[in-house]
Structures are given as structure tokens and as C-alpha cells.
Amino acid sequence: MRDVAIVGIGQTPVGELWDKSLRHLGHDAIVAAMQDAGIETADALYVGNMLSGELGGQEHLATLLADFVGLRGIEAAKIEAACASGAAAMRVGIMAVASGMADVVIVAGVEKMTDTLPHETTAGLALAADQEYEVAEGATFLALNAMLMRRYMYEYRVPHSAFAPFPVNAHKNAQGNPNAMFPMAISVERYINAPVVAPPINVMDSSPICDGAAAVVLVPADRAKEYGQGKRIVRVAASVSATDTLAVHDRRDPLFLEAAYLSSHRAYTLAGLTPKDIDFFELHDAFSIMSVLSLEACGFAPRGQGTALGESGAIALDGELPITTMGGLKARGHPVGATGIYQIVEVVQQLRGEAGTNQLKHAHVGMAQNIGGSGATIITHILVGED
Amino acid sequence: MSPHSFTHAEYLAHLQNHVLAASRCQNCGELYLPPRPLCRRCFAQDMRWEELSGRGELVAFTVVHIVPSAMLEAGYDQDRPYVSGLVRLEEGPTISALITGVDAHHPETIRVGSQVRVVFPRGDQDPGPAPLVFEVVSES
Ligand SMILES: [Zn+2]
To answer: Given CB atoms, is A156 within the 8 Å cutoff of chain B?
Structure first.
């Protein structure tokens, strides 16, 4: 296997982008990544997307995008793994380059969620859950996360306010990200008093419905210097995907994200690292509870202590383990199938020193984790900035 | 029994006959609700249907205001929400279900740990979009 490097990144602003269709969003991100890498063609395009068929009536998306960005003739395929579609596409791209079956690969994540009515988008997102035994009984994606948060508060006797540091930190960091959907600070009081959407989850616990696209360019690490116009080369140190039961009720302990444990710990082993070596972590804060469960399963906090890690200040830009450094899913936005690629793009920005006012002082090893469904597919990437 | 049995359709047929049924592995004894044809513990395919008591405990719950299309068609919406929950049966398995016997407009009155029991639609009732319903019978 060959080492793989990321030599180009691109992204669109995240938001309600009614004037741009799916193909234009994909176009903007892909062209930006190709220009950043200094390439005019590629061997393959893999596209992470969850809902183009369900909400937009458009499948065969990767082939459409390949032609639209002037790459007709190359290999193209869409990869779907619910909200983890972006990272799943990333992993396919890495496998293609690592195996030697392709040399230059573009991986994009694209999603459009705001052109449909709320109940249609809700039904679309619920496709990530077990249709026969969860959704048919009235459970939605939001409802399942709300039940996890309720159970967490019950088992660990944690008040709802203990989750405040996560959205507060995400919104603070989004202020330094020109592509973020909600670049404004929120106070703890505003969090506590936010309207409840599915108790105990309130608006400020929830990532927004939005549109967006992001893309990266992958090449073999030993040829990375030929691309990227002298920017710091970022090497993929580990890429690991793991699964759990699709239905939350089928897990022996729903408060332990076993797939997060498996993918992160296998990634640490592959990279020869421990949690202490991770300089920052772009985690999947689709809901505040997911941040806490992820931090615990990945070994950054003991069971039941995830909220305490937030309260300690460790998750801030100047803390021991900065998270959601560009706003996370909560404040940058969560265009579901694109999110996994936004996370990778943001880790590369930090490793290159291109994160602007949010630049971390110490950024050599970054981790990104993308979660599909309520923890059923979890994909962890560890990226390292080369000297 | 055939490994192609224990389908969702068979499970629903049991519910219509007022039976909450799970599949039990005849090799290792593991009990599955939802039913499965293949044991994920010992990989045996020798399952039998087993009727459950229908009694359990509310493990977690929420109130659903932003309802999916099927529930919208059934008359639920922002102003007419329903309670969705996880129920752990006294036989062991946990399952997602619609929860009744509680006030969806006052979630602060609903308690994790409450005792619940399965309720089947009466013959003259439309079973509705959520086939499995548990009623809270007493608080924890
Ligand atoms: Zn068995």
C-alpha cells in the first residue's frame, strides 16, 4: 500500500443556498480544490451524498458532476453511508490511491436539504434509521438523539445545562470561519433558554438543515510535492470505518458508541499514536449528546465525564483538545453528506496554518470523525502535517 | 423453521393477533426483539417464536413535534405531538415504540423508569401508523 496525501481543498459557504442547485454547489467545491492542488484532470471522482435521490430526485450524481466540472470520461461514483457519506467517500478515495488503482483522485461531499418541506427533510434524514422497527414506530433521527440525551442525563445525573460548553464553543469558533452558517457567539443563558425541539434537545443542541459542498484532492504521498503549489503536505495517517447496529434499541449499551471506539482505536494503532498525541479533533456534533458520547468512546474522557471535559475548557482553541475549531456541525452547518469532507478540509486548513483567526498554535496531528445515523457507521481519519 | 422466516410482516401479523412475539435462539437461548432469523451471538439459524409478557420499563423518551410524513398523514403535527420511547421488556430486549398514557404537552411529568405495558388496538380501531404502542401504567 502507498501512503496518501491531501494536496488540494475547496468548499462553498454553508447555508440556505436556494440560488444554487446541487450540481453548482459540487462544481464550486471541486473546481476550488482542483485549483488549490494545481491539477486540470484526475483519474476518479468519488462523491459523498445522502439525499440527492430522496429530496432532489437526482441519482447518478457523481457522473453528473464529473461532466459538469469538465472531467467527462473519468471514473465516478456516489458513496452513501447516511450522514457519514462524506467520510465514506473519502475512505474510498484513499483506498483507490493507496492501492495504486488511481493516482489523482477528487473526493467531494455535496448536499442540498433546504429546497424541500420540513416533514420531507425529516423523513429523508430518518432514512438513516431502521425503517421497519424505529421509523415505523414514530421515531425520527432527532427523536433518537433526544432519547440518547435523556438517557445520558438520567444515568449520569447530569443537568441539561452541562452540555452548554459544546454549542457555545462551536458558535464562538464559527465567528472565525467565513463559510460558517451561524458565525455568531451564543451565551450559556441563550443555550439554556433556547426553544425545545424534542425534549431535552433544544434548538442550540441541534445542527441546522442546510446546503453545502466541499472537496479534496488525493495523490500518492511520494508524489505530493508535484502538487499543491508548495503548501504544507498533509498525509493520511489512518482511515478506519466501523459499524454498529442500525437501530439504537439493538445496542446493549446505547450510551457507548462502540463504532466510535472501534474506529478511533484502530486508527490510533495504524497511526502509532494515542489520544494524547491528537492536537485537535473535528468531531460530529450533529447534536450536543453526540459530542459527549464521541469524546468518551474515543478515549478523551471517561464514561460519564464527557460534559466535564467541556466544562474544563479543554475543548477551546487554546485548550488541550480543541474541537469543532471552525464551528463544527452546530455552527458551520451540517449538510449531511458533505459534512465528512468539510471536516477533512478544516483539519487541512489547521495543519497548513490557513485557519485565520482560528489558527491553533500547535497543529501537527488532527483527527476527524464522521457519524452516520445515531452511531451506526463511524469513520475516523487521522491526518498529519509533514515537515 | 426456515431462515427466511421471522420477517417484519410475520411480526406485524402477531401484533394484529394481540401477541408481542420475539424470536428465541434454540441453540444458545438469546432472545431477539425485533425478531431475527440468525443468532448474532452463536450464528445458529434455529429460532422459535416466543410470546412476551408485554410488560417493561421506559428507558428513554422524547416528544416528537417535527413529525415524518407517515405520522403527518395520521394526524400528528407541531401542535399535536406524540411521545416516542425506548422500552426494555422484562424478558430483556429493548424496542422503539409509541408511548401513550402520558401528556405529550408536559414532558416534565414523564419519568424514565416508569412501568409500561403493551396495548393492542381494539378490533374496531384503525391500528394507525405506529404498530407497537406501550402505555405507562405507573411511575417509577
Ligand atoms: Zn444463539
So the answer is: no
Q: What is this structure's pTM?
A: 0.97
Report the alpha-carbon distance of residue B24 to residue B8 in Å, rounded.
Answer: 16
pLDDT bucket at A24, cuts 50 / 70 / 90: very high
Classify the phi-psi angles of B135: left when phi > 0, otherwise alpha if psi is within -120 to 50, otherwise beta. Answer: beta
Owner of C-alpha cell 467520510: A87
Q: What's the burial of A35, exposed, middle or buried (CB within 10 Å: 0-12/13-18/19+)?
A: middle
Taken in order A339, A344, A345, A346, is the CA torsion positive or negative?
positive
Alpha-carbon torsion (A272, A288, A343, A56), positive or negative: positive
DSSP 3-state of B16: helix
pLDDT number for residue B4:
60
CA distance A63 to A84: 20
Q: Which residues in chain A have their CB less than 8 angstroms from residue B84's CB?
A: 137-140, 143, 147
| Cross-chain Cβ contact B96/A133 below 8 Å | yes
Catalytic residue check, A210: no
User: Residue B140 — pLDDT band, cuts 50, 70, 90?
Assistant: low
Whether A25 and A40 map to the same domain: the answer is: yes
CATH number for the domain that contains residue A153: 3.40.47.10
CA of A126 to the centre of ligand 1 (A): 30
Neighbouring residues of A277: CB distance < 8 A, sequence distance ≥ 6? A365
Burial class (CB in 10 A: 0-12, 13-18, 19+), A253: exposed
Q: For residue A203, is it within any domain?
A: no
Residue A353 Cα distances to A165, A385, B26, angstroms: 25, 10, 60
CA of A327 to the centre of ligand 1 (A): 46
Of B59, B107, B132, the CB nearest to A137: B132
The pLDDT value recorded for residue A341 is 99
What range defines the domain where residue A110 resides?
Answer: 4-116+209-233
B114-B115-B116 Cα angle (round to 5): 115
Report the sign of the C-alpha dihedral through residues B59, B64, B69, B72, in that order: positive
Q: Which helix (H) or strand (E) holds A241?
A: strand A234-243
For residue range A96-113, list pLDDT tens digits in order.
999 999 999 999 999 999
A228 lies in the same domain as A281: no
Which three-class secondary structure state does DSSP give residue B66? coil
Residues A98 and A140 in one domain: no
Taken as a whole, chain A contains a residue count of 387
Residue A204 lies in a domain: no
Same domain, A316 and A361: yes
Q: Collect all residues of chain B within an 8 Å Cβ-Cβ radius of residue A198.
A: 62-66
* Contact flag B86-A198 (C-beta cutoff 8 Å): no
How many domains is chain A partitioned into structurally?
Answer: 2
Q: Which three cell numbers stand for residue A50?
A: 445522502
Q: For residue A83, indicate whether it is catalytic.
A: yes
